[in-house]
Design goal:
The complex is a heterodimer of chains A (about 200) and B (about 260). With about 200 residues, chain A is of the alpha+beta class. Chain A is about 30% helix and about 35% strand. Chain A is built from 4 helices and 13 strands. In chain A, helix 1 (about 60-80) crosses helix 2 (about 85-100). Chain A is globular and about 50 Å long. By secondary structure, chain B is an alpha+beta fold. Chain B has helices at about 105-125, 130-150, 190-205, 210-230, 260-264; strands at about 55, 60-65, 65-70, 75, 80-85, 90-95, 95-105, 155-165, 165-170, 180, 185, 235-240, 245-255. In chain B, a hairpin with a 5-residue loop joins strand 9 and strand 10. Classes of the chains: A alpha+beta (about 200), B alpha+beta (about 260). The interface between A and B is medium-sized, with 25 and 28 residues. Chain B: Keywords: Cytoplasm, Nucleus, Proteasome. Chain B: One of its GO terms (biological process) is proteolysis involved in protein catabolic process.
């Protein structure tokens, strides 16, 4: 019965690197069992000006970890007197996710831009492994699109190609996965800033 | 309590038949299921009760002049080949390599520990570095102690190296079981590759294989594993340790032979 189920972001999340930044995307459905608790969730959570995380798994767990990391990063960047590295943010996530691996249900993608290495995507799956990838996908809906992504991904895509790639992947997953749906939230993170878009209803590919 | 709920355990806080017993000292008598996170947060840090992203077999073989390790480059999330570019072979120092199978988050943790140890040792600047045998012994103690606290590092590790002119190949697993042999394999490799490796070694007991023979044998074993292990992948790495040092090759791709498909 749905009142006994934990609130989870059964999800599809994606992030892709391009030269100059990253494109990230997520669906907007939060479920408690089969009931959709929030149909317009924002799963793209900023942890710093140019660093975002895409959250999948338990909504509570990921929000708690993301808040903690955002705090740590804010402190760290004040001490550093420069924008923090994406790798640092990813490492902070990994430390929490690995330390409490038996208590958390969290699959996180950390993506952003920093002056040192440009756009980067790191994935911290359940278990607390840290890995950098040219593109990453996560959440329950990701299972349905591995084939599509393997067939379609090209290294060296431009920003708009990445946005199209992410939007198409998410749309396909959202159709097939009952735990993903709603609108597609996209964000492009570059040196200039963060540009957010929402693809809804008829805008979906 | 609702009607029809299971009766309370026979005695509170003690072992239950068929269940993993977590001693009260660890703060929990029954671990809360993943995702609910209720109760006092007294689980030890990094407790691994079930592996998540895992690596499959690692193979090791001594040859005349050194030792060789081989492993594929995939991290599996259950049956999904999720991360296809992960390196499971680690160069510890100029005389030792380590290959791990099992949970890769624990392997990353182990990698960090080892890298820090090696740095600390270099800082001492006394010309000494960890020998493969020393590392094997250290790792055995670490893994056994973690197992004894019911907080294992869920890995099976092969350590290979050449030190003082002697080659070394050792095995340690998550329970702290440790041994050495001229040929070793973890995971599926223990069933499929080890017999092949041993047959080759026993064919000519007077000598170890040459480097080329060893390399060819390991590739043959990796091919067999690719045919028969559902969690394997056809990209792999090879690490060779000799007197001269460590060479890490990869990622290389296996050529698979499917001719029998036409005959069947």
């Amino acid at each position: 019965e749905w009142t006994a189920e934990p609130v989870s972001t059964g999800t599809t999340i994606m992030a892709v690197e391009f030269d100059g930044g990253v494109v990230i995307g997520a669906d907007s459905r939060t479920t408690t069992g089969a009931y959709i608790a929030n149909r317009v969730t924002d799963k793209l959570t900023p942890v710093h000006d140019r660093i975002f995380c895409c959250r999948s798994g338990s909504a509570a767990d990921t929000q708690a970890v993301a808040d903690a990391v955002a705090y740590q990063l804010a402190f760290h960047s004040v001490e550093l007197e420069e924008p923090p590295r994406v790798r640092t943010a990813a490492r902070l996530f990994q430390q929490s996710c690995y330390r409490y691996r038996e208590e958390l249900s969290a699959g996180i993608i950390v993506a952003g831009w920093d002056p040192r290495r440009g756009g980067q995507v790191y994935v911290v799956p359940m278990g607390g492994l840290l890995l950098r990838q040219p593109f990453a996908v996560g959440g329950s809906g990701s299972s349905y699109i591995y084939g599509f992504l393997d067939a379609t991904f090209q290294p060296g895509m431009s920003r708009s190609q990445c946005q199209e790639f992410v939007a198409r992947g998410l749309a396909l997953a959202m159709v097939r996965d009952g735990s993903s749906g709603g609108v597609i939230r996209l964000a492009a993170i570059t040196e200039e800033g963060v540009e957010r878009t929402v693809l809804a209803g008829s805008d979906l590919p | 309590m609702e009607v029809g709920a299971a009766p309370p355990p026979f005695w509170a806080g003690g072992p239950a038949p068929g269940q993993t017993y977590i001693p009260r000292a660890l703060g929990h008598t029954d671990i809360a299921p993943r995702g609910t996170g209720t109760g006092p947060a007294a689980l030890p840090a990094g407790l691994t009760l079930s592996p998540m992203v895992t690596g499959t077999s690692v193979l090791g073989l001594k040859f005349s002049g050194g030792v060789m390790l081989a492993a594929d480059t995939v991290g599996s999330f259950g049956s999904l080949a999720r991360f296809r570019g992960i390196s499971r072979l680690l160069k510890v120092n100029d005389s030792t390599v380590l290959g791990a199978s099992g949970d890769l988050a624990d392997f990353q943790h182990l990698r960090q520990l080892l890298e820090q140890m090696v740095i600390d040792e270099e800082l001492l600047g006394d010309g000494h570095s960890y020998s493969p045998r020393a590392l094997h012994s250290w790792l055995t103690r670490v893994l056994y102690n973690r197992r004894s606290k019911i907080n294992p590092l869920w890995n099976t590790v092969l350590i290979a190296g050449v030190y003082g002119g002697e080659s070394f190949l050792g095995y340690v697993d998550m329970l702290g079981v440790a041994y050495e042999a001229p040929s070793l394999a973890t995971g599926f490799g223990a069933y499929l590759a080890q017999p092949l490796l041993r047959a080759e070694l026993e064919r000519d007991r007077d000598r170890l294989p040459t480097r080329e023979e060893a390399r060819e044998l390991l590739e043959r074993c990796l091919k067999v594993l690719y045919y028969r292990d559902a969690r394997s992948f056809n990209r792999y790495e090879v690490a060779t340790v000799t007197e001269k040092g460590v060479e890490l090759e990869g990622p290389l791709t296996l050529e698979a032979n499917w001719d029998i498909a036409h005959v069947v």
